[in-house]
Write a structure and sequence with these properties.
479 residues, FAD/NAD(P)-binding domain, 2 domains, seven-stranded mixed beta sheet, six-stranded mixed beta sheet, 16 helices, globular, binds flavin-adenine dinucleotide, pyridine nucleotide biosynthesis
Length: 479
Protein backbone atom coordinates (compact mmCIF):
# COMPACT_ATOMS: atom_id res chain seq x y z
CA UNK A 1 0.00 0.00 0.00
CA UNK A 2 2.83 2.35 0.87
CA UNK A 3 4.37 1.69 -2.58
CA UNK A 4 1.10 2.58 -4.25
CA UNK A 5 0.83 5.83 -2.36
CA UNK A 6 4.38 6.84 -3.18
CA UNK A 7 3.92 6.08 -6.88
CA UNK A 8 0.74 8.11 -6.94
CA UNK A 9 2.47 10.81 -4.97
CA UNK A 10 5.42 11.13 -7.29
CA UNK A 11 3.04 11.09 -10.24
CA UNK A 12 0.84 13.79 -8.83
CA UNK A 13 3.90 15.92 -7.96
CA UNK A 14 5.11 15.71 -11.55
CA UNK A 15 1.61 16.54 -12.81
CA UNK A 16 1.53 19.66 -10.76
CA UNK A 17 4.47 21.12 -12.65
CA UNK A 18 3.69 24.51 -14.15
CA UNK A 19 4.06 24.87 -17.91
CA UNK A 20 4.03 28.42 -19.25
CA UNK A 21 3.01 28.61 -22.89
CA UNK A 22 4.10 32.00 -24.22
CA UNK A 23 1.95 32.99 -27.21
CA UNK A 24 -1.70 32.07 -27.61
CA UNK A 25 -1.66 31.93 -31.42
CA UNK A 26 -2.39 28.76 -33.37
CA UNK A 27 0.48 26.66 -32.02
CA UNK A 28 0.38 28.04 -28.46
CA UNK A 29 -3.35 27.37 -28.09
CA UNK A 30 -3.00 23.81 -29.41
CA UNK A 31 0.02 23.18 -27.19
CA UNK A 32 -1.97 24.34 -24.16
CA UNK A 33 -4.45 21.54 -24.90
CA UNK A 34 -1.64 18.98 -25.13
CA UNK A 35 -0.03 19.95 -21.80
CA UNK A 36 -3.40 20.31 -20.08
CA UNK A 37 -4.44 16.86 -21.27
CA UNK A 38 -1.33 15.48 -19.59
CA UNK A 39 -2.39 17.12 -16.35
CA UNK A 40 0.17 19.92 -16.11
CA UNK A 41 -0.76 23.26 -14.63
CA UNK A 42 -0.88 25.32 -17.83
CA UNK A 43 -0.57 29.10 -17.99
CA UNK A 44 -0.91 30.70 -21.42
CA UNK A 45 0.41 34.24 -21.87
CA UNK A 46 -0.74 36.12 -24.95
CA UNK A 47 0.18 39.71 -25.76
CA UNK A 48 -3.09 40.46 -27.58
CA UNK A 49 -6.49 40.90 -25.96
CA UNK A 50 -8.79 37.86 -26.12
CA UNK A 51 -9.55 37.57 -29.86
CA UNK A 52 -12.85 35.90 -29.01
CA UNK A 53 -14.05 39.25 -27.72
CA UNK A 54 -12.19 41.60 -30.04
CA UNK A 55 -14.10 43.16 -32.95
CA UNK A 56 -11.15 43.28 -35.33
CA UNK A 57 -8.56 40.54 -35.19
CA UNK A 58 -5.19 41.72 -36.39
CA UNK A 59 -2.98 39.00 -37.70
CA UNK A 60 -1.62 37.39 -40.77
CA UNK A 61 -3.42 35.64 -43.60
CA UNK A 62 -7.20 35.48 -43.25
CA UNK A 63 -7.38 31.81 -44.18
CA UNK A 64 -4.90 28.98 -44.49
CA UNK A 65 -4.58 25.47 -45.84
CA UNK A 66 -4.85 22.69 -43.28
CA UNK A 67 -3.54 19.28 -44.30
CA UNK A 68 -2.76 15.84 -42.89
CA UNK A 69 -0.08 16.73 -40.33
CA UNK A 70 -2.15 19.51 -38.84
CA UNK A 71 -5.23 17.31 -38.79
CA UNK A 72 -3.40 14.50 -37.03
CA UNK A 73 -2.21 16.94 -34.37
CA UNK A 74 -5.75 18.27 -33.88
CA UNK A 75 -7.12 14.73 -33.71
CA UNK A 76 -4.92 13.85 -30.74
CA UNK A 77 -6.73 16.46 -28.62
CA UNK A 78 -10.15 15.70 -30.09
CA UNK A 79 -10.35 18.84 -32.24
CA UNK A 80 -10.11 17.46 -35.76
CA UNK A 81 -13.81 17.08 -36.51
CA UNK A 82 -14.75 20.52 -35.15
CA UNK A 83 -12.16 22.21 -37.33
CA UNK A 84 -12.66 20.08 -40.44
CA UNK A 85 -16.41 20.67 -40.37
CA UNK A 86 -15.72 24.40 -40.83
CA UNK A 87 -13.14 23.93 -43.57
CA UNK A 88 -13.67 23.96 -47.33
CA UNK A 89 -12.05 21.06 -49.21
CA UNK A 90 -9.76 22.01 -52.09
CA UNK A 91 -9.06 18.98 -54.32
CA UNK A 92 -6.97 20.70 -56.99
CA UNK A 93 -5.10 23.81 -57.86
CA UNK A 94 -6.96 25.79 -60.54
CA UNK A 95 -4.48 27.50 -62.82
CA UNK A 96 -5.71 30.72 -64.42
CA UNK A 97 -3.82 31.50 -67.63
CA UNK A 98 -3.53 35.01 -69.06
CA UNK A 99 -6.26 34.38 -71.63
CA UNK A 100 -8.68 33.38 -68.87
CA UNK A 101 -8.68 29.62 -69.39
CA UNK A 102 -8.71 27.60 -66.20
CA UNK A 103 -7.07 24.20 -65.84
CA UNK A 104 -7.12 22.06 -62.73
CA UNK A 105 -4.06 20.18 -61.40
CA UNK A 106 -5.14 17.70 -58.70
CA UNK A 107 -3.25 17.75 -55.40
CA UNK A 108 -3.16 13.99 -55.11
CA UNK A 109 -5.31 10.95 -55.73
CA UNK A 110 -9.09 11.01 -55.90
CA UNK A 111 -10.45 11.84 -52.47
CA UNK A 112 -7.29 13.66 -51.29
CA UNK A 113 -7.69 17.35 -50.53
CA UNK A 114 -6.44 20.18 -48.39
CA UNK A 115 -8.83 22.36 -46.39
CA UNK A 116 -9.24 26.11 -46.45
CA UNK A 117 -9.79 27.19 -42.83
CA UNK A 118 -10.42 30.55 -41.24
CA UNK A 119 -7.39 31.53 -39.14
CA UNK A 120 -9.31 33.60 -36.57
CA UNK A 121 -11.94 30.92 -36.07
CA UNK A 122 -9.32 28.20 -35.72
CA UNK A 123 -7.47 30.23 -33.11
CA UNK A 124 -10.69 30.96 -31.21
CA UNK A 125 -11.76 27.30 -31.23
CA UNK A 126 -8.36 26.20 -29.93
CA UNK A 127 -8.37 28.81 -27.15
CA UNK A 128 -11.84 27.68 -26.09
CA UNK A 129 -10.73 24.04 -26.20
CA UNK A 130 -7.74 24.85 -23.97
CA UNK A 131 -10.05 26.62 -21.55
CA UNK A 132 -12.25 23.55 -21.12
CA UNK A 133 -9.41 22.01 -19.05
CA UNK A 134 -9.73 23.16 -15.45
CA UNK A 135 -5.93 23.10 -15.13
CA UNK A 136 -5.47 25.78 -17.83
CA UNK A 137 -5.49 29.51 -17.40
CA UNK A 138 -5.42 31.95 -20.30
CA UNK A 139 -3.73 35.27 -19.53
CA UNK A 140 -4.45 37.80 -22.27
CA UNK A 141 -2.81 41.22 -22.65
CA UNK A 142 0.38 39.75 -21.19
CA UNK A 143 3.34 40.62 -23.37
CA UNK A 144 6.58 38.87 -22.54
CA UNK A 145 9.34 41.45 -22.18
CA UNK A 146 12.19 39.31 -21.01
CA UNK A 147 13.10 36.16 -19.14
CA UNK A 148 16.08 34.91 -17.21
CA UNK A 149 17.87 31.78 -18.38
CA UNK A 150 19.33 31.38 -14.87
CA UNK A 151 16.14 31.55 -12.82
CA UNK A 152 13.52 30.99 -15.55
CA UNK A 153 11.63 34.07 -14.29
CA UNK A 154 9.59 35.80 -17.00
CA UNK A 155 8.62 39.47 -17.00
CA UNK A 156 5.32 40.40 -18.61
CA UNK A 157 3.84 43.77 -19.46
CA UNK A 158 0.12 43.90 -18.77
CA UNK A 159 -2.47 46.05 -20.54
CA UNK A 160 -2.67 48.37 -17.50
CA UNK A 161 1.06 49.09 -17.87
CA UNK A 162 2.05 47.06 -14.79
CA UNK A 163 4.81 44.49 -14.93
CA UNK A 164 4.34 40.99 -13.63
CA UNK A 165 7.03 38.42 -12.84
CA UNK A 166 6.18 34.75 -13.23
CA UNK A 167 8.05 31.49 -12.69
CA UNK A 168 7.31 28.14 -14.33
CA UNK A 169 8.91 24.70 -14.50
CA UNK A 170 8.87 24.68 -18.29
CA UNK A 171 8.61 27.58 -20.72
CA UNK A 172 7.20 26.77 -24.15
CA UNK A 173 7.96 29.55 -26.62
CA UNK A 174 5.12 29.74 -29.16
CA UNK A 175 5.36 33.47 -29.70
CA UNK A 176 5.79 33.46 -33.45
CA UNK A 177 8.44 34.42 -36.01
CA UNK A 178 9.78 37.34 -33.95
CA UNK A 179 9.79 35.35 -30.71
CA UNK A 180 10.78 37.23 -27.56
CA UNK A 181 11.59 33.90 -25.89
CA UNK A 182 14.11 33.11 -28.66
CA UNK A 183 16.03 36.34 -27.92
CA UNK A 184 17.64 34.69 -24.91
CA UNK A 185 18.73 31.74 -27.05
CA UNK A 186 20.74 34.16 -29.21
CA UNK A 187 23.03 34.87 -26.26
CA UNK A 188 23.88 31.19 -25.82
CA UNK A 189 27.03 29.63 -27.13
CA UNK A 190 26.60 27.21 -30.07
CA UNK A 191 23.11 28.46 -30.91
CA UNK A 192 22.66 28.69 -34.70
CA UNK A 193 20.28 31.21 -36.15
CA UNK A 194 19.49 32.56 -39.60
CA UNK A 195 16.78 34.86 -40.87
CA UNK A 196 16.04 35.64 -44.52
CA UNK A 197 13.49 38.05 -45.91
CA UNK A 198 12.41 37.18 -49.44
CA UNK A 199 12.07 40.07 -51.93
CA UNK A 200 8.32 39.45 -52.20
CA UNK A 201 5.58 40.92 -50.07
CA UNK A 202 1.90 39.94 -49.91
CA UNK A 203 -1.36 41.78 -49.99
CA UNK A 204 -4.88 40.41 -49.41
CA UNK A 205 -8.01 41.29 -51.36
CA UNK A 206 -11.55 40.03 -50.98
CA UNK A 207 -13.56 38.57 -53.85
CA UNK A 208 -17.24 38.88 -52.84
CA UNK A 209 -19.99 36.36 -53.69
CA UNK A 210 -22.02 36.91 -56.86
CA UNK A 211 -25.80 36.50 -56.39
CA UNK A 212 -25.11 34.81 -53.06
CA UNK A 213 -22.78 32.24 -54.63
CA UNK A 214 -19.02 31.83 -54.86
CA UNK A 215 -17.63 33.95 -57.71
CA UNK A 216 -15.40 31.04 -58.82
CA UNK A 217 -15.47 27.27 -58.32
CA UNK A 218 -15.12 26.85 -54.56
CA UNK A 219 -13.33 23.53 -54.13
CA UNK A 220 -10.05 24.71 -55.62
CA UNK A 221 -7.03 26.73 -54.64
CA UNK A 222 -6.99 29.23 -57.50
CA UNK A 223 -3.58 30.30 -58.78
CA UNK A 224 -2.59 32.96 -61.31
CA UNK A 225 1.10 32.17 -61.85
CA UNK A 226 2.93 34.98 -63.60
CA UNK A 227 6.58 33.94 -63.21
CA UNK A 228 8.03 36.73 -61.06
CA UNK A 229 4.80 37.13 -59.12
CA UNK A 230 1.48 35.38 -58.59
CA UNK A 231 -1.95 35.65 -57.05
CA UNK A 232 -3.77 32.87 -55.22
CA UNK A 233 -7.33 32.64 -53.87
CA UNK A 234 -8.75 30.43 -51.12
CA UNK A 235 -12.50 30.05 -50.43
CA UNK A 236 -14.18 31.13 -47.17
CA UNK A 237 -17.38 29.87 -45.54
CA UNK A 238 -19.16 33.19 -46.21
CA UNK A 239 -18.74 32.45 -49.96
CA UNK A 240 -16.04 35.05 -50.42
CA UNK A 241 -12.54 34.26 -51.64
CA UNK A 242 -9.46 35.76 -50.07
CA UNK A 243 -7.05 36.62 -52.87
CA UNK A 244 -3.40 37.02 -51.95
CA UNK A 245 -1.08 38.82 -54.32
CA UNK A 246 2.59 37.89 -53.89
CA UNK A 247 4.92 40.31 -55.64
CA UNK A 248 8.39 41.84 -55.22
CA UNK A 249 8.25 44.97 -53.07
CA UNK A 250 9.78 47.02 -55.93
CA UNK A 251 6.76 46.22 -58.08
CA UNK A 252 4.30 47.04 -55.30
CA UNK A 253 5.99 50.42 -55.11
CA UNK A 254 5.43 51.01 -58.84
CA UNK A 255 1.67 50.83 -58.41
CA UNK A 256 0.62 53.98 -56.60
CA UNK A 257 -2.79 55.03 -57.96
CA UNK A 258 -6.15 53.33 -58.41
CA UNK A 259 -5.85 53.58 -62.20
CA UNK A 260 -2.46 51.91 -62.09
CA UNK A 261 -3.97 49.05 -60.08
CA UNK A 262 -6.58 48.48 -62.78
CA UNK A 263 -3.95 48.76 -65.51
CA UNK A 264 -1.81 46.21 -63.69
CA UNK A 265 -4.70 43.78 -63.21
CA UNK A 266 -5.80 44.29 -66.81
CA UNK A 267 -2.37 43.18 -67.92
CA UNK A 268 -1.88 40.20 -65.61
CA UNK A 269 -5.17 39.13 -63.98
CA UNK A 270 -7.90 40.42 -66.34
CA UNK A 271 -10.40 37.70 -65.36
CA UNK A 272 -10.19 38.75 -61.69
CA UNK A 273 -11.22 42.39 -62.22
CA UNK A 274 -14.99 41.86 -62.66
CA UNK A 275 -14.95 39.28 -59.85
CA UNK A 276 -13.26 41.51 -57.27
CA UNK A 277 -14.91 44.64 -58.70
CA UNK A 278 -12.94 47.54 -60.16
CA UNK A 279 -13.94 50.01 -57.43
CA UNK A 280 -13.19 47.60 -54.59
CA UNK A 281 -9.87 46.77 -56.20
CA UNK A 282 -8.87 50.43 -56.46
CA UNK A 283 -9.79 50.96 -52.80
CA UNK A 284 -8.69 47.73 -51.10
CA UNK A 285 -5.32 47.56 -52.80
CA UNK A 286 -4.23 50.53 -50.69
CA UNK A 287 -5.93 49.54 -47.40
CA UNK A 288 -2.85 47.89 -45.96
CA UNK A 289 0.76 48.00 -47.06
CA UNK A 290 2.23 44.78 -48.48
CA UNK A 291 3.48 42.51 -45.69
CA UNK A 292 6.97 41.03 -45.57
CA UNK A 293 7.73 37.30 -45.42
CA UNK A 294 10.58 35.86 -43.42
CA UNK A 295 12.21 32.46 -43.16
CA UNK A 296 13.81 31.68 -39.80
CA UNK A 297 15.96 28.66 -39.02
CA UNK A 298 17.61 27.92 -35.72
CA UNK A 299 19.04 25.11 -33.64
CA UNK A 300 18.82 23.81 -30.95
CA UNK A 301 15.15 24.27 -30.07
CA UNK A 302 15.70 23.88 -26.34
CA UNK A 303 17.63 25.44 -23.54
CA UNK A 304 18.56 22.94 -20.79
CA UNK A 305 15.40 21.45 -19.26
CA UNK A 306 13.81 24.87 -18.92
CA UNK A 307 12.64 26.10 -22.29
CA UNK A 308 11.61 24.85 -25.72
CA UNK A 309 10.60 26.62 -28.94
CA UNK A 310 7.76 25.45 -31.19
CA UNK A 311 5.88 26.73 -34.24
CA UNK A 312 7.08 29.87 -36.00
CA UNK A 313 9.23 30.76 -32.97
CA UNK A 314 11.41 27.80 -33.92
CA UNK A 315 10.95 27.83 -37.71
CA UNK A 316 9.11 30.54 -39.60
CA UNK A 317 8.80 29.34 -43.19
CA UNK A 318 7.66 31.20 -46.31
CA UNK A 319 4.00 30.31 -46.98
CA UNK A 320 4.37 28.61 -50.39
CA UNK A 321 4.04 25.00 -49.27
CA UNK A 322 1.09 25.72 -46.99
CA UNK A 323 2.97 23.97 -44.19
CA UNK A 324 3.91 26.63 -41.60
CA UNK A 325 1.00 25.95 -39.28
CA UNK A 326 0.88 22.26 -40.18
CA UNK A 327 4.54 21.89 -39.19
CA UNK A 328 3.91 23.87 -36.00
CA UNK A 329 0.98 21.62 -35.12
CA UNK A 330 3.10 18.56 -35.85
CA UNK A 331 5.75 19.97 -33.45
CA UNK A 332 3.17 19.61 -30.65
CA UNK A 333 2.38 16.07 -31.74
CA UNK A 334 6.04 15.02 -31.97
CA UNK A 335 6.79 16.58 -28.57
CA UNK A 336 3.84 14.68 -27.13
CA UNK A 337 5.09 11.40 -28.62
CA UNK A 338 8.53 11.99 -27.06
CA UNK A 339 6.91 12.84 -23.71
CA UNK A 340 5.30 9.38 -23.85
CA UNK A 341 8.56 7.67 -24.75
CA UNK A 342 10.63 9.42 -22.08
CA UNK A 343 8.12 9.57 -19.23
CA UNK A 344 7.77 13.36 -19.22
CA UNK A 345 11.34 13.82 -18.02
CA UNK A 346 12.06 17.31 -19.39
CA UNK A 347 15.85 16.87 -19.13
CA UNK A 348 15.62 13.96 -21.61
CA UNK A 349 12.59 15.07 -23.65
CA UNK A 350 13.89 18.50 -24.64
CA UNK A 351 17.21 17.40 -26.22
CA UNK A 352 15.45 14.50 -27.93
CA UNK A 353 12.87 16.89 -29.36
CA UNK A 354 15.67 19.04 -30.81
CA UNK A 355 17.41 15.96 -32.21
CA UNK A 356 14.29 14.66 -33.91
CA UNK A 357 12.64 17.87 -35.02
CA UNK A 358 15.41 20.20 -36.24
CA UNK A 359 16.22 18.25 -39.46
CA UNK A 360 12.52 18.05 -40.32
CA UNK A 361 11.69 21.69 -39.72
CA UNK A 362 14.81 22.78 -41.62
CA UNK A 363 13.75 20.53 -44.51
CA UNK A 364 10.28 22.09 -44.72
CA UNK A 365 11.81 25.58 -44.57
CA UNK A 366 13.94 24.66 -47.62
CA UNK A 367 11.01 23.05 -49.42
CA UNK A 368 8.87 26.13 -48.86
CA UNK A 369 11.61 28.24 -50.47
CA UNK A 370 11.70 25.80 -53.39
CA UNK A 371 7.93 26.03 -53.85
CA UNK A 372 8.23 29.82 -53.82
CA UNK A 373 9.62 29.41 -57.36
CA UNK A 374 7.58 26.34 -58.33
CA UNK A 375 4.18 27.90 -57.67
CA UNK A 376 4.66 31.16 -59.53
CA UNK A 377 6.83 29.92 -62.36
CA UNK A 378 7.27 26.17 -62.87
CA UNK A 379 3.53 25.52 -63.13
CA UNK A 380 3.71 27.47 -66.42
CA UNK A 381 6.19 24.97 -67.85
CA UNK A 382 5.04 22.08 -70.04
CA UNK A 383 7.87 19.86 -68.80
CA UNK A 384 6.85 20.47 -65.18
CA UNK A 385 3.23 19.58 -65.93
CA UNK A 386 4.32 16.50 -67.86
CA UNK A 387 6.49 15.39 -64.91
CA UNK A 388 3.58 15.94 -62.51
CA UNK A 389 1.41 13.64 -64.63
CA UNK A 390 4.19 11.05 -64.92
CA UNK A 391 4.75 11.12 -61.13
CA UNK A 392 1.04 10.78 -60.44
CA UNK A 393 0.68 7.98 -62.99
CA UNK A 394 3.63 6.06 -61.52
CA UNK A 395 2.17 6.60 -58.05
CA UNK A 396 -1.09 5.01 -59.19
CA UNK A 397 0.61 1.93 -60.65
CA UNK A 398 3.37 1.68 -57.98
CA UNK A 399 1.84 3.34 -54.92
CA UNK A 400 4.56 2.18 -52.53
CA UNK A 401 7.59 2.86 -54.72
CA UNK A 402 6.84 6.25 -56.24
CA UNK A 403 5.16 8.84 -54.04
CA UNK A 404 5.06 12.44 -55.35
CA UNK A 405 6.80 14.92 -53.05
CA UNK A 406 3.64 16.97 -52.61
CA UNK A 407 1.78 13.84 -51.49
CA UNK A 408 4.45 12.93 -48.93
CA UNK A 409 4.50 16.44 -47.51
CA UNK A 410 0.79 17.12 -47.56
CA UNK A 411 -0.99 13.79 -47.17
CA UNK A 412 1.35 11.73 -44.99
CA UNK A 413 3.42 12.11 -41.85
CA UNK A 414 6.61 10.99 -43.60
CA UNK A 415 9.31 12.97 -41.83
CA UNK A 416 10.00 16.08 -43.89
CA UNK A 417 13.71 15.38 -44.26
CA UNK A 418 13.01 11.81 -45.36
CA UNK A 419 10.48 13.07 -47.90
CA UNK A 420 13.19 15.29 -49.38
CA UNK A 421 15.70 12.42 -49.54
CA UNK A 422 13.18 10.15 -51.18
CA UNK A 423 12.16 12.86 -53.64
CA UNK A 424 15.77 13.26 -54.83
CA UNK A 425 16.06 9.49 -55.28
CA UNK A 426 12.75 9.21 -57.15
CA UNK A 427 13.61 12.15 -59.34
CA UNK A 428 16.84 10.49 -60.41
CA UNK A 429 15.13 7.17 -61.11
CA UNK A 430 12.20 8.71 -63.04
CA UNK A 431 14.45 10.98 -65.11
CA UNK A 432 16.70 8.05 -65.99
CA UNK A 433 13.63 5.97 -66.84
CA UNK A 434 12.27 8.74 -69.08
CA UNK A 435 15.66 9.05 -70.77
CA UNK A 436 15.68 5.32 -71.48
CA UNK A 437 12.16 5.50 -72.91
CA UNK A 438 13.12 8.51 -75.06
CA UNK A 439 16.27 6.78 -76.37
CA UNK A 440 14.32 3.59 -77.15
CA UNK A 441 11.69 5.58 -79.04
CA UNK A 442 14.32 7.42 -81.09
CA UNK A 443 16.32 4.28 -81.86
CA UNK A 444 13.13 2.32 -82.60
CA UNK A 445 11.86 4.99 -84.98
CA UNK A 446 15.21 5.15 -86.70
CA UNK A 447 15.18 1.40 -87.19
CA UNK A 448 11.68 1.46 -88.55
CA UNK A 449 12.45 4.20 -91.05
CA UNK A 450 15.80 2.87 -92.11
CA UNK A 451 14.76 -0.77 -92.27
CA UNK A 452 11.02 -0.85 -92.93
CA UNK A 453 9.70 -4.07 -91.50
CA UNK A 454 9.45 -6.82 -94.04
CA UNK A 455 9.29 -9.53 -91.50
CA UNK A 456 8.77 -12.57 -93.73
CA UNK A 457 11.98 -11.74 -95.64
CA UNK A 458 14.24 -11.07 -92.66
CA UNK A 459 15.59 -13.99 -90.79
CA UNK A 460 16.37 -13.73 -87.09
CA UNK A 461 20.08 -13.98 -87.97
CA UNK A 462 19.79 -11.03 -90.35
CA UNK A 463 17.97 -8.95 -87.76
CA UNK A 464 20.63 -9.75 -85.22
CA UNK A 465 23.41 -8.75 -87.63
CA UNK A 466 21.71 -5.45 -88.31
CA UNK A 467 21.29 -4.76 -84.63
CA UNK A 468 24.95 -5.57 -84.09
CA UNK A 469 25.83 -3.13 -86.87
CA UNK A 470 23.85 -0.43 -85.07
CA UNK A 471 26.11 -0.79 -82.05
CA UNK A 472 28.99 0.49 -84.15
CA UNK A 473 29.69 4.21 -83.60
CA UNK A 474 29.45 4.64 -87.36
CA UNK A 475 26.05 2.99 -87.58
CA UNK A 476 24.61 6.07 -89.24
CA UNK A 477 26.91 5.55 -92.23
CA UNK A 478 26.45 1.85 -92.61
CA UNK A 479 24.48 1.35 -95.78
C1 LIG B 1 0.37 34.87 -45.95
C2 LIG B 1 0.55 33.62 -45.14
C3 LIG B 1 -0.13 32.48 -45.50
C4 LIG B 1 0.03 31.30 -44.77
N1 LIG B 1 -0.62 30.19 -45.17
C5 LIG B 1 -0.45 29.03 -44.51
C6 LIG B 1 -1.12 27.86 -44.92
O1 LIG B 1 -1.87 27.86 -45.90
N2 LIG B 1 -0.92 26.72 -44.23
C7 LIG B 1 -0.09 26.66 -43.15
O2 LIG B 1 0.07 25.58 -42.57
N3 LIG B 1 0.55 27.77 -42.73
C8 LIG B 1 0.40 28.95 -43.37
N4 LIG B 1 1.04 30.07 -42.94
C9 LIG B 1 1.95 29.98 -41.79
C10 LIG B 1 1.19 30.14 -40.48
O3 LIG B 1 0.52 31.36 -40.48
C11 LIG B 1 2.16 30.10 -39.31
O4 LIG B 1 3.04 29.03 -39.44
C12 LIG B 1 1.38 29.97 -38.00
O5 LIG B 1 0.60 31.10 -37.77
C13 LIG B 1 2.34 29.77 -36.84
O6 LIG B 1 1.66 29.76 -35.63
P1 LIG B 1 2.37 30.21 -34.31
O7 LIG B 1 1.36 30.03 -33.24
O8 LIG B 1 3.68 29.54 -34.19
O9 LIG B 1 2.71 31.74 -34.50
P2 LIG B 1 1.68 32.95 -34.62
O10 LIG B 1 0.47 32.55 -35.35
O11 LIG B 1 2.48 34.10 -35.11
O12 LIG B 1 1.26 33.24 -33.10
C14 LIG B 1 2.15 33.79 -32.18
C15 LIG B 1 1.35 34.36 -31.03
O13 LIG B 1 2.26 34.85 -30.05
C16 LIG B 1 1.83 36.13 -29.61
N5 LIG B 1 3.03 36.85 -29.17
C17 LIG B 1 4.00 37.38 -29.93
N6 LIG B 1 4.95 37.97 -29.17
C18 LIG B 1 4.54 37.81 -27.88
C19 LIG B 1 5.10 38.20 -26.62
N7 LIG B 1 6.23 38.90 -26.56
N8 LIG B 1 4.42 37.87 -25.50
C20 LIG B 1 3.27 37.17 -25.57
N9 LIG B 1 2.68 36.78 -26.73
C21 LIG B 1 3.33 37.09 -27.86
C22 LIG B 1 1.17 36.74 -30.84
O14 LIG B 1 0.26 37.76 -30.48
C23 LIG B 1 0.48 35.54 -31.45
O15 LIG B 1 -0.80 35.35 -30.95
C24 LIG B 1 0.89 31.27 -43.65
C25 LIG B 1 1.56 32.44 -43.27
C26 LIG B 1 1.41 33.60 -44.00
C27 LIG B 1 2.15 34.82 -43.59
Amino acid sequence: TTMDYSTNDSKSTSKKKVVAVVGGGLVGALNACYFAKRGFQVEVFESREDIRQAKIVKGRSINLALSHRGRQALKQVGMEDTIVSKGIPMHSRMIHSLNGTQSPIPYGKKGQYILSVDRANLNKELLSAAETYSNTKLNFAHKLLNWSTETGAMTFLRADGAKEEIQADLIVGCDGAFSAIRKQFLRQSRFNFSQTYIPHGYLELTMPPINGEFAMKPNYLHIWPRNTFMMIALPNLDKTFTCTLFMPFDEFENVTTGDQVIEFFQKYFPDAIPLIGADALKRDYFCLPAQAMVSVKCSPYHLSDKCVLMGDAAHAVVPFYGQGMNAGFEDCLVFNEIMDQLNEDFSAVLPEYTRVRVPDDHAIADLAMYNYVEMRSHVNSKWFLFRKYVDNFLHIIMPRTIIPLYTMVTFTRTRYHEAVKRWHWQDKVINQGLLCVAVSVVVGSYLLVRYPPNMPNISIEQLWTRLQALKSPFCGFVG
